[in-house]
Design goal:
By secondary structure, the chain is α+β, with helices and mostly antiparallel strands. It folds into three domains: 60 residues, RNA-binding S4 domain (Structural Genomics Hypothetical 15.5 Kd Protein In mrcA-pckA Intergenic Region, Chain A), CATH 3.10.290; 78 residues, Pseudouridine synthase, CATH 3.30.2350; 147 residues, Pseudouridine synthase (2-Layer Sandwich). The chain has eight helices and 16 strands. Helix 3 packs across helix 4. The protein starts with 10 loop residues before the first strand and ends with a helix. This is Pseudouridine synthase. Responsible for synthesis of pseudouridine from uracil at positions 955, 2504 and 2580 in 23S ribosomal RNA.
Length: 316
């Protein structure tokens, strides 16, 4: 199909009723199968994507009936013949901790991205789609690549919309993390209410800092145990900002162990030598929420990743 400029391959797609409220970037990823997320953002920024004839932003919410101009893209075959490796497929299959008709919950291993892009061919969502080719799967939320633990993937559009609404509502989803923080935190619950701002990308990397111009962000730290002079903590968050726990912990002066971006390089070196910790000690341990207006409660848990449990044991 050609548009009025005669460019072959351009499509004008009408947003279906069941896509009402979907973000433009996620809609495009569904339309441009195999396109890297970075390419989708580039197309939007350059104005090649239009909504009802107007430029739009990636985060814009679409309405049923909107007309979206989708430009043609040429995607390169991904490494490994366009499918995730058997090793990755098996890893993600084993990581599934819960599944029903509405959603899949996995305990994501550290080092696996939520989705492909930025030099990564396949992440959790692409791998699950390869494992469940007949299912319509959508990421509900993301975890940093270095963070392990619970991620939820919706199997139905209705579940996706409910979960996204709960994420936008403070306290809609109870989120509990486990983290090892450097030094000795005070006893009791330490509340951090500090706005976070995503600074300009440098070399493709996001850098987040505490800044009054940022978005409201609240975290609550509680020491569970003292181990080797460090603090093993439970962290509950009311908001889900990028790198929130890591930046709030650093703001307290007690960075997350193994954090190469916001942490303490000397602390990380000592912990590598003492207990073999070679990754970020941050794990999404539990999620609590309810679907269908509270009639369908979920309590999802993911045990501490084995390599973190071993490092904690070695600390004594």
């Amino acid at each position: 199909m050609a548009d009025d400029t005669g460019v072959a391959g351009v499509r004008h797609v009408q947003v279906a009723d069941d896509r009402d409220g979907q973000r433009l970037d996620n809609f495009l990823l569904g339309q441009l199968k195999g396109a890297p997320r970075g390419l989708v953002y580039k197309l939007v920024r350059s104005g090649q994507v239009r909504v009802n004839g107007k430029r739009a932003k990636a985060e814009q919410r679409l309405a049923a009936g909107d007309a979206v101009r989708v430009p043609p893209v040429r995607t390169e075959p991904a490494a490994g013949g366009g499918t995730p490796s058997r090793t990755l497929l098996d890893l993600i299959e084993r990581a599934i901790v819960f599944e029903d008709g509405a959603l899949i919950a996995i305990s994501k291993p550290s080092g696996v991205a939520a989705h492909g892009g930025s030099g990564v061919s396949f992440g959790v969502i692409e791998t699950l789609r390869a494992l469940r080719p007949q299912a319509s799967l959508e990421l509900v939320h993301r975890l940093d690549r270095d963070t392990s633990g619970l991620m939820v993937i919706a199997k139905k559009r209705s579940a996706l919309l409910q979960l996204q609404a709960l994420l936008r509502e403070e306290g809609g989803i109870g989120k509990r993390y486990l983290a090892l923080l450097g030094g000795r935190l005070p006893d009791g619950v330490l509340d951090v209410d500090a706005p976070l701002h995503v600074a300009a990308r440098q070399g493709g990397e996001r850098h987040v800092r505490v800044d009054a111009v940022g978005k409201p962000s609240r975290s609550h730290f509680r020491v569970l145990e003292r181990r080797g002079g460090q603090s093993y903590c439970e962290v509950r968050i009311e908001t889900g900002r990028t790198h929130q726990i890591r930046v709030h912990a650093a703001h307290l002066g007690h960075p997350v162990a193994g954090d190469g971006k916001y942490g303490d390089a000397e602390l990380n070196r000592r912990l590598r030598e003492r207990c073999g910790l070679r990754r970020l000690f941050l794990h999404a341990a539990s999620l609590e929420f309810a679907l269908d207006e509270g009639r369908r409660p979920y309590v999802l848990n993911a045990p501490l990743a084995p390599e973190l449990a071993e490092a904690l044991d070695r600390l004594g």
